[in-house]
Amino acid sequence: MFRTSTTALMAIPSRRSVAWIIVLAVACSLNPRVACDAEVLAWSAEASSFRVATFNASLYRNADGQLIRDLQTGHNEQARHIAEVIQRVRPDVLLLNEFDYDEPMRAAKLFHDKYLAIGQSGCQPIQFDFTFSAPVNTGVPSGRDLNHNGRSAEPDDSFGYGRHAGQYGMLVLSRFPIERSAVHTFQKFLWKNMPDAMLPIDPKSGQSFYDSDDLAILRLSSKSFWDLPIRVKVGAEANPREFTFHFLCSHPTPPVFDGPEDRNGRRNHDEVRLIADYITPERGKYLVDDANQAGGLPPEQPFVIVGDLNCDPLDGEGLRGTMPQLLEHPRVNAAFTPTSKGGPLIAKQFPNQFTKSRGNPAHVTANFTQEGHGCMRIDYVLPSTSFQILSGGIFWPEPNDPAAKLSSATDHHCVWLDLATPPRTE
After folding, report:
1. What is d(CA 267, CA 290) in angstroms, rounded to the nearest whole number?
2. Residue 380: beta bridge partners?
């Protein structure tokens, strides 16, 4: 297993020996781009760990097929920047949010072959042998006037906000095999079928914001929720560590862009609750996937929750009880919070946007200062307690870092963790 170091060595720790760290620290002090201009460095063959990441890449377009057209040349600047971030972080398993879905996965193949497989700015190319994507609710017409503005064919009337089917989709890239026969997706699960769902109420009438015809078709996931079993094999060839973990992927709606009924805030809460219920066997019995299979994740199964969950635990407009459903869940290892050096500097640059912030600016993952909304922690990698977290971070370089230019590609930053494999059970 091979990885390169990052531009700022301390931003992406690894499992290399202390001697290598010292050598690289000296090299980086002389040439801050050494990580992408020089050699590829091997991790220990005995290392029984792997790297998981999530990244909202903003690789979406307002017209169907436009992302494919943009990627075809191999020279799209945004895609090159996103690819370079991935080449620097070098995850083993990665969820990309906001990557437009097309059924033949032409955009995914173009991005892999013309961007990830080509070294960007001197970085080592990266290859993922296994990919997964599936339909999402964004841009799929509902036929109903879901925002109650008198029209029923607008982006906000789709099952998830979108200008075309597949906009803001999800894409998983993996070095390890995905057990496709055991995949569960929850694109079509109806919101009303969640017990005690936090359905919105019209504050003027005191009645349900959605009528019975709306609720008969309204799906909970604004994109989808996926459980992808991934078969990991790491360590020495003579005695490899092999196990399966569940990669739990989603991208709930942002809790804004609504009215006093707070339909998006409530939906965001329940989309996150779906994840919490799925990993709680006694609470997940009501869940039925797109193949009509019922139930949640068995209690002995390791998992990693990933995605742009669109909710800060302390700040923003998300309902305050939303993230504790995961961050305080007994099966979730949330003791370690990834940090960056770039986030706190943004807070210092725009102090007026952070006067009411309660969170640690080193923990934020998304930069909305251009819209006047400060920064928030909304992108997560949350492993089960069966994993030990070795290290992690948020790829957010400081302004004087040559890699800082990469932040122009998206308002989110890649979050990653290095996880030790679960103890052997045999």
Report:
1. 19
2. 307
**For the purposes of burial, counting CB atoms within 10 Å of the CB of 182, is it exposed (0-12), middle (13-18) or buried (19 or more)?**
exposed
Residue type, 127: Q
Q: Please say if the pLDDT value at position 426 is more than 50.
A: no
Which residue reads 């202390």 in tokens? 18
Q: Is the pTM of this model over 0.70?
A: yes
Q: Which two tokens stand for residue 298?
A: 């068995």
Distances (CA, A) of 161 to 55, 62, 78, 139, 401: 20, 12, 23, 6, 36
In order of start, what are the domains of the chain with their CATH numbers?
Answer: 2-420 (3.60.10.10)
pLDDT tens profile 349-396: 999 999 989 999 999 999 999 999 999 999 999 999 999 999 999 999
From 338, 161, 334, 332, select the one nearest 255 (Cα to Cα).
161
The C-alpha atoms of residue 343 and residue 345 are separated, in whole angstroms, by 5
